[in-house]
Amino acid sequence: MKENKLSLKVTRRDFLKTAALVGGAAAAPAFLTSCGPGGTDKPIKIGMLVPNSGPFATNGEDTTTAIKLWIDGHLGGEIAGRKVEYVEEDTETNPEVGLQKARKLVEQDEVDVLVGVISSGVLMAIRDYIHEAQKLLVVTNAGANAISRGLKTPYIWRASMTNWMDSALWPYWAYENLGTRAIPVVLDYTAGYEVRDSMVYAFQDAGGTIVDEVLVPFPVMGDPAPLITDIASKDADFFYLFNPGGNGVSFFQAAVEFGLFDQIQMFAAEGSSSEDMLAAYGDPAEGIKSSWNWSFIDDIPENQAFIKEHIDTYSQPPTSYSVQAYDAARIISTMIERLEGDTSDVNAMVDAMAGISFASPRGPFTLDEKTQNPRQNWYLREAVRHTDGQLHQKTLLTLGEVVDPGDDSKG
Amino acid sequence: MDNFTIQFLNGLANGMLLFVMAAGLSLIFGQMNVVNLSHGAFYLIGSYIGYTVVNRFGSFWLALLIAPLIVGILGYFIERYLLRGFYGGKNHLKQVLLTFGIAISLTAVIEWVWGTLNLAVQPPAILSRLIPILGVQYPLYRFSLIIFGVLLALGMWLIWERTRIGAIVRAGVSDAKMVSGLGINIERVFAGVFVFGTMLATLSGVLGAPIYSISIDLGFEILILAIVVVVIGGLGSLTGAFWGALIIGMANTFGKAFIPEFSLFIIFAVMAIVLLVKPSGLFGLEGFE
């Protein structure tokens, strides 16, 4: 749709620019480089801030490839007539390194806009710097609630979610369908507390009882089996699991080995049911119930087109990191198109972010002005074996639209 | 009560796996006086090779055989061409830098070969079930680990105390120069000890994969656990590594069961207490403090 709108808006300026490009290409390259700074003839520099090494490197790669899938694949590598250049920096999922790299991208590379950030720890660490440097950052994953609440800054917007949103709706469904007594089992760090808090609020609001809670040590250091035995001994209908990464794989394996799922039901957060986790869990993962803002299998045409496009381009299926990054790239391109390619004024860029709305692979998607976060659907999912022989998440039903409350009133 | 029994068994299984992990580290330190910080990386490479063998050939047992063999050869070359120049108490800092460098390089190679996705290895089918024991249902794989750990400890103790090889190695610890004066090639003994130590680390990597799963950052976690075990048991003592592993296995298990938030702290608290009471560790030789 956007392409049509653009082509309708071919102005005299666009025409001249194209003519200049053709002329420039025919002339010497030196002519091109002589264009003055600040003008819209220079390439747009997008600074990508993701882990390229360590345990989250795969998530980082999903992020950068999906951003390029939108910009290079759909827009031909240009936004509003300006060529796009990428500068990638490795955060190593280390808050200090992340801050260093953010500085480097802003001060040395002079990028026009920043995109990425997988870990909430890194996001929290760079928040003050981004605020002071007044550089626009579009977050592709990190869900720390505070960034949309107490620590909100005009310069950080999210294409992903807040951790709160993850458990805003499903506890009401679980109360009706899984039982009235629950235990949150969450990783012992900020994101764990945040998904727990909103889960507890919603589940109690539905009328349910929180029997107990288990904080999973991070790193778990050794055998997770003692936690499994502990959960099995609790008198509850189900437990809610948020235990991402290698920690979570060993936990799930031990749960299977001890026959935990014969004794108690489980409901999984995205962190414990993402596509890569399902692959690591193997066969016993079939049937896991979870909820998130995206499923691999659903009847959203944009999603199925996106998945096909991703597989065609990279020979591998996308993950939820890919989807959020794809949308982040689209937010950036839409914003710059609204400004007709002029990225000289950061406040104009911020103003142009408000109300961006499109049909995402996740469904209807709008950037909420108040929280600078998406307003989007949340889905109830089940892990099923797909036609490709792999386990994937499938949408069972749409739980409803979620938007962060913007304060801590609901957990 | 049932719960306590299960947690007790968990503690034993945890401890025995820790023993297999830490035994090699303790051995290399005790015999060669080398702090081998690449121990965790050898564990990790064992896990990854195990993963590949299990998925390619469908046999966990084959993995138990192949992985230590491959990494043992690697260990031989590392000892022969890197470590040999840095023996002796004065070289501790150089050894630390060297073995830490080896750990980082090995981890990078693993990342390059296997990527960074988290992986899981299923225990062999014949052991993936629950068996009744002490009145509770317990996973057979974990129970087998307990048996294996005890057998390994016994076997190593017998070799150590009752065989000629054990005697030579023990003599080498006390006075390497005298041993070589007696016509024994002490360099070859050291090489043998190092290769055996890396093979143990690799073996524990295969055995541990179904318990810890596999992730690229696991090597350093394992290294820390193994160091804690060795420090508690007393540097260089196999008996110490055995009891140290049991104590940490139990502390880690009951810590996680009752106060998971503090389970990490408990491991180190136990270590601190042991060191306060007996600075050389439970079975440490004097002078190895």
Can you give a write-up of this model?
- The complex is a heterodimer of chains A (411) and B (289).
- Residues 1-10 and 21-38 of chain A have low confidence and may be disordered.
- Chain A is of the alpha/beta class and 411 residues long.
- Chain A has 2 domains: 12-162 and 302-376, Response regulator (Rossmann fold, 3-Layer(aba) Sandwich); 165-297 and 378-402, Response regulator (Rossmann fold, 3-Layer(aba) Sandwich), CATH 3.40.50.
- Chain A contains 15 helices and 16 strands.
- In chain A, strands 7, 8, 9, 10, 11, 12, 13, 14, 15 and 16 form a 10-stranded mixed β-sheet that branches. In chain A, strands 2-3-1-4-5-6 form a 6-stranded mixed β-sheet.
- In chain A, a hairpin with a 2-residue loop joins strand 2 and strand 3 (82-90).
- Chain B has helices at 2-32, 39-57, 60-81, 92-114, 140-162, 164-174, 176-181, 186-212, 218-233, 238-258, 263-277, and strands at 130-133, 136-139.
- A two-stranded antiparallel ribbon of chain B has the order 1-2.
- The model of chain B has no long low-confidence stretch (mean pLDDT 91).
- In chain B, helix 1 (2-32) packs across helix 9 (218-233) and helix 10 runs antiparallel to helix 11.
- Chain B has one domain (2-218).
- Chain B contains 11 helices and 2 strands; from the N terminus they run H-H-H-H-E-E-H-H-H-H-H-H-H.
- With 289 residues, chain B is an all-alpha fold.
- The A-B interface holds A 53-58, 188, 214-217, 219, 221-227, 229-230, 233, 245-246, 248-250, 252-254, 257-259, 276-277, 279-282 and B 3, 6-7, 10, 13-14, 17-18, 111, 115-120, 122-123, 128, 130, 137, 139, 141-142, 210-218, 221, 224-225, 249, 252-257, 260-261, 263-264, 267.
